[in-house]
Design goal:
The chain is an alpha+beta fold. It is about 20% helix and about 30% strand. A hairpin with a 5-residue loop joins strand 16 and strand 17.
Length: about 270
Amino acid sequence: MVRSLWSAATGMIAQQTNVDTISNNLANVNTTGYKTEVAEFKSLLYQTLQTKSTTANNRQKPIGAQVGLGVRNSSITSIFRQGPFLESSSPSAFAINGKGFFAVRGADGATYYTRNGNFNWSMGANGLTLTNSEGYPVLDTNGRGIVLSGNYTTSKITISDDGTIFYPDATGNPRSLGVRIGVYQFQNPAGLEKNGNSLFLPTTASGAAINEATNANVKKSQVVQGYLEGSNVQVVDEMVNLIVAQRAYEMNSKAIQASDEMLQQANGLRR
């Protein structure tokens, strides 16, 4: 009975993590570039009560008897499924159609990766710099910040499908400025480390970033101007998962109640 108390307690803790994950998904349903997360679980150790060969007359048994000791969270996995495209009036709004990520240089000097293409042209001493909403510079295919040192009107800047930046010449025809927005892929994007603000850091599990501009072995992503990638959270699915998690939490609490009542009855047998 004590075993059942602790097993049910681990179930409640695990389902609380599940509810926390679902709540985070629902809270970010309108977050640009957000990827839904799924809590995954694994069973704890098993205690052997009987071996296969244990019987009353020492005969061979086909199976033994083992009791599980509960559950625990094994991982919270991000599902990098393509999100819907949402039209934006900003000329510096970009969405990625494919498996790629934009790259930005953080305040700590590290390179972060994101699917959030809600960028802005920021005026500085060196010209126009393409930045994200936090002011971090967006990187080109060479890993450098994108800076346009000229008198450019931001509303006239256009982007091709591969991320090349264009500006109209005197005749109104778009001309390449020789700068291309960097798009990168990962062998295992689920292994990326989440850092908030829709930013990710590569890890050993995710592998190093693969530059689409220099690697011919990956399927190229498409950069779409005037759109943002919405969250891929399915609200209906999350609500169903929330109900299931709540019921599982409730059933584990019922198991604790039942174990408590059984212990109470056992303690009252000597009266």
